[in-house]
Design brief:
The complex is a heterodimer. Chain A has one domain. Chain A is mainly α. Chain A contains 9 helices and no strands. The longest helix of chain A has about 45 residues. The two termini of chain A are about 30 Å apart. By secondary structure, chain B is α/β, with parallel strands linked by helices. Chain B folds into 2 domains: about 220 residues, Rossmann fold (3-Layer(aba) Sandwich), CATH 3.40.50.300; about 80 residues, no CATH class. Chain B has 11 helices and 15 strands. A 6-stranded mixed β-sheet of chain B has the order 6-7-8-3-9-10, sandwiched between helices. In chain B, strands 13-12-14-11-15 form a 5-stranded antiparallel β-sheet, with no helix packed on it. Chain B has a 4-stranded antiparallel β-sheet with strand order 2-1-4-5, with helices on one face. At the A-B interface, helix 1 and helix 4 of A face helix 1, helix 2 and helix 3 of B.
């Protein structure tokens, strides 16, 4: 870990991080309010049979319960896109982007090993992801209090939900950084990382809406994000183990590839 | 005896079938200014990137300040300063923030930042501006300062005067003079042969990944042929048998010149042009009694030596 690199990376990202956190907090705030105001109407609409039952379980979230609405705030595309600004955008650009701009060789001409450089950026990406997830949760708690439904929330389970979110998006950050150290230019690194996230997201949502596609869900990392089971006390620790395994594989890939790569002069 | 700053033994870099660098044997002594010359694609940057650990050698080995480039790369980079060719900087930082950040990354106090900034006329006001607003020359000056601000034992500079105006080039050469007097080692690649000629103790010439020559700059220049033009009061003497004299053109008595070449220029009835290599004394002795009316000796230039070595290599 190189602290000079870490703090400078935080300084570079601070405005973007603040904006994403505010947006996520607002988004997290809205869902419990929507649940409190319109949850019963949505429930009645669904029970009327006008909508297929599968719509009640979009990616594992719903608006018929507080845990369901908080789960929906995690799995909804708005949250995925905002968190991915760091989980995918930052991590993919961290090395490949610097390489493309030519600034990587200025940094690596210093006494910083490639392993240290990589670990510092990995830590930074996890700190950014952890902060954004905390902002989303803070918004959810604030919204619950504002809507007067905080009593339905198991506060003692929120830290585990935060850990689950951080490990999921931390795994995506590790994948993004693994792609970043593997390419000399940003587009292929970003393309690979984004492709993996989008494919997994489609598999998860498709599986939640279409029973025949359920078989795909275990192959999606989003399947192991379990906000509702965590908040209702039905989560399984094996979900976190799968995500941890993916992180370990991505880190191992990066540690094998990055130090062995030739960094030719930027074109 | 001076210690070795850089030593390569059969240093080779291949990209598949392409040989970017072929068995380079190089020795740079501590305290010398060493010029590394060659056209684009010759292998200069590849050599530098191998020394810094950006590339991995396909064969051979190298040591920088006594440390192995493969296994002790971080320790090497702690003791050197590096200016990349066409340096890219973090545009969203001010010059001051950038130097501060790179200084912190180096992990050594930036003891000479102020001195180099003053010499390169980087004022406090300039350093407070964002790097993105800097001109090409300003960026290069920041690049030079970041490479030298921590007073490294060895400076590796890739095309260091690129983008500098003549005044700043002179200021940069003064910096090199200061470092040289202090016994620092400077290894720099350049296309600008006049600056290499001005500041380097020794030069290496690389062509198509191979080392063509490593010589003292002075020796290279002294070996180089000087162009001589003489106007005599009478008929030019025969110089064919004088050691070191070649390419003789003499007036043919009809207002023209006869000889292996006709390079243009002034012609007259008693005129002679030739090239003289090495010791000038036999040549001067041969013309001493010939009634010299006018004598012009064009000094040897590194450009000519460089071109000659290159042309020799091509042949």
């Amino acid at each position: 870990m190189n602290w000079a690199l870490f703090w400078q990376t935080c300084r570079f990202q601070r405005v973007r991080l603040a904006l994403v956190c505010v947006a996520l907090a607002v988004w997290g705030f809205l869902l419990p309010v929507i649940y409190a105001r319109f949850g019963s109407q949505f429930s009645a609409l669904l029970n009327s049979g006008l909508l297929p039952k599968e719509f009640a379980n979009f990616g594992g979230g719903d608006v018929f319960s507080l845990p369901g609405s908080i789960a929906l705030s995690f799995i909804h595309p708005i949250a995925i896109i905002l968190i991915s600004v760091f989980a995918i955008g930052f991590s993919s650009a961290a090395v490949a982007g610097e390489r493309e701009r030519g600034t990587l060789e200025v940094a690596l001409a210093r006494p910083v090993s490639r392993q240290t450089f990589y670990f510092t950026l990995l830590m930074a990406s996890w700190v950014f992801v952890a902060t954004t997830i905390a902002a989303l949760l803070a918004g959810g708690v604030s919204g619950s209090m504002f809507a007067g439904v905080a009593g339905e929330l198991a506060f003692e389970r929120l830290p585990l939900l935060w850990v689950n979110g951080v490990i999921l998006f931390g795994a995506f950050a590790a994948i993004g950084l693994a792609a970043s150290v593997s390419f000399d230019r940003l587009p292929p690194a970003l393309g690979w990382a984004l492709g993996i996230v989008i494919t997994m997201y489609v598999m998860q949502v498709l599986g939640s809406l279409w029973p025949a596609a359920e078989i795909l869900q275990p192959y999606s990392l989003f399947y192991y994000l379990k906000p509702k089971p965590i908040l209702t006390g039905a989560a399984e620790p094996s979900d976190l183990a799968v995500l941890a395994l993916v992180i370990a594989l991505a880190v191992a890939w990066a540690l094998v590839v990055f130090p062995r790569r030739d960094l030719a002069a930027p074109s | 005896m001076k210690q070795t700053a850089i030593e390569t033994l059969g240093l080779t870099k291949r990209y598949g079938e392409v040989r970017a660098l072929e068995a380079i044997d190089l020795l740079v002594r501590q305290g010398e200014v060493f010029g590394f010359l060659g056209p684009n694609g010759a292998g200069k940057s590849t050599t530098i990137r191998l020394l810094l650990g950006f590339l991995h050698p396909s064969a051979g080995s190298a040591r920088v300040l006594g440390l192995d480039i493969v296994h002790e790369s971080v320790a090497i980079r702690r003791r050197i300063g590096y200016l990349p060719g066409g340096i890219a900087l973090y545009d969203t930082l001010t010059g001051e923030q950038l130097l501060e950040y790179l200084g912190r990354l180096t992990g050594r106090a930036s003891v000479r930042r102020r001195e180099w900034c003053e010499r390169l006329e980087l004022s406090a006001t300039t350093l407070k501006r964002l790097v993105r607003d800097y001109s090409r020359g300003m960026r290069q000056k920041i690049g030079i300062v970041q490479a030298l601000q921590h007073d490294p034992e060895l400076a590796i500079l890739d095309e260091p005067s690129e983008g500098l105006d003549p005044l700043m080039q002179r200021a940069f050469y003064d910096i090199l003079d200061v470092l040289k007097r202090e016994g620092r080692t400077i290894f720099f690649s350049s296309h600008v042969l006049s600056e290499v000629e001005r500041v380097c103790d020794r030069v290496a010439i690389v062509r198509q990944g191979k080392l063509v020559a490593v010589e003292e700059t002075a020796a290279l220049l002294s070996r180089q042929k000087r162009n001589v033009q003489i106007r005599f009061t009478g008929a030019p003497p025969r110089l064919d048998s004088v050691p070191g004299v070649s390419a003789i053109e003499r007036s043919n008595g009809r207002g023209g010149l006869e000889g292996p070449r006709d390079t243009g220029g002034p012609k007259g009835p008693h005129y002679l042009r030739c090239r003289v290599e090495g010791d000038m004394r036999p040549f001067l002795a041969a013309i001493a009694d010939a009634g010299v009316e006018d004598l012009t000796i064009e000094p040897a230039r590194l450009e000519d030596a460089f071109l000659e070595l290159y042309q020799g290599g091509h042949q």
